[in-house]
Amino acid sequence: MLSVAYKYAYQYGIHPLLFSFEPETAHHLAIATCRRISESSIMQAIAKSLFYYSDSRLSQELWNLKFDNPVGLAAGFDKNAEAIGAWENIGFGFAEVGTITAKGQSGNPLPRLFRLPRDRAVLNRMGFNNRGAAATAIDLKNYLANHRLGIPLGINLGKSKVTELAEAKFDYAESLRSLYEFGDYFVVNVSSPNTPNLRDLQATEQLCGILAELQPINTANKPILVKIAPDLNDADIIEVVKASQSYGVAGIVATNTTISRQNLTTTHLAITGKPVTEEAGGISGQPVRDRSLAVINLIWQTTNGSLPIIGVGGIFTAEDAWQKITAGASLVQIYTGLIYEGPLVVKQVLQGLLTKLDAHGLDNIQQAIGLAHK
Questions:
Q1: 289 vs 63: CA distance, rounded Å
Q2: Would you name the residues annotated as active-site residues?
Q3: What is d(CA 290, CA 120) in angstroms, rounded to the nearest whole number?
Q4: Model pTM?
Q5: Which residues contact 351 (CB under 8 A, 6 or more apart)?
Q6: What is the pLDDT of residues 61-96, one digit of tens each?
Q7: In this predicted structure, what is the pLDDT of residue 198?
Q8: Beta strands in the chain (DSSP E)
Q9: What is the pLDDT of residues 305-339, one digit of tens each?
Q10: Quick one: 308 exposed, middle or buried, by C-beta within 10 A (0-12, 13-18, 19+)?
Q11: Coil, strand, or helix at residue 15?
């Protein structure tokens, strides 16, 4: 009953209020609320009573980590790892923080975050705004000294804007070294469109150089994944996957935001008055859903299902999550769906996934991974 009451409160009260604010302001309010949950046992209990949902059929072990459910928070929401204690109480099975760079940076000029409601999408050109790896490491150390996380924590790593591409591998290594003890897994983000030329690091030679630089730091053999762009052609995706496998990468995150502007209902941004086609940035949400799904299918087929995939892009419903899982994703992540649907989206997706398992006569979520290929 509490969840039902909250659903209507969010739909008719909280959602309109948040959407009345400029998007980045609304995001700051959301993070501030989640930070309060992270720091207060009372707030955690309230959040858990509203949003948490558990069923053993949704749990799995991957990379020697226990995931109580396959739905995680995508990178980009909790950039500075400010609210890590909130995400398990909101119902996520894991959370990925960042993107974090070796050097703190303010990101791109405002405005840099835009809603596209008619497309159920967000356009962002944030530019990896974060406090930097060393400062984040201090905050994580202080928090984890007094709190225990009940879900795996991923840390998404990016290149500092001031670092030249030729030096990128050292930048990623510095971040990994600073944050290594705090992450359960790490993601090498070479696919954001909002740092100049970052996507060039997806080229085989550049990517292999980064992965080689990270290997000696990874003394505990923690999972290191690579996050790729949806805008690569299929041949290039296969090359990225093969290069990643050659360096023992633990998985692929598919996919980042898209620079494509095809099939958008939105033509202009109200805040700037400019056509969307003239605005820089990556689009997340519904417009990237189908391409993300196609990339997941391609990776599964290329690797015969041997390389774990985290599927992200346009997940709003259980059906969206189910399609990515049956295409080959072991785990999925939500970002834009959280903005449009609110925190109850996690519980709704989990309940819907159980319905899907029942409908297909499956005992657990692991049996659904790659089901479309079997």
A1: 26
A2: 192
A3: 14
A4: 0.95
A5: 53, 318
A6: 999 999 999 999 999 999 999 999 999 999 999 999
A7: 65
A8: 60-62, 65-67, 71-73, 94-100, 113-116, 121-124, 153-157, 185-189, 224-228, 251-254, 282-285, 309-312, 331-334
A9: 999 999 999 999 999 999 999 999 999 999 999 99
A10: buried
A11: helix
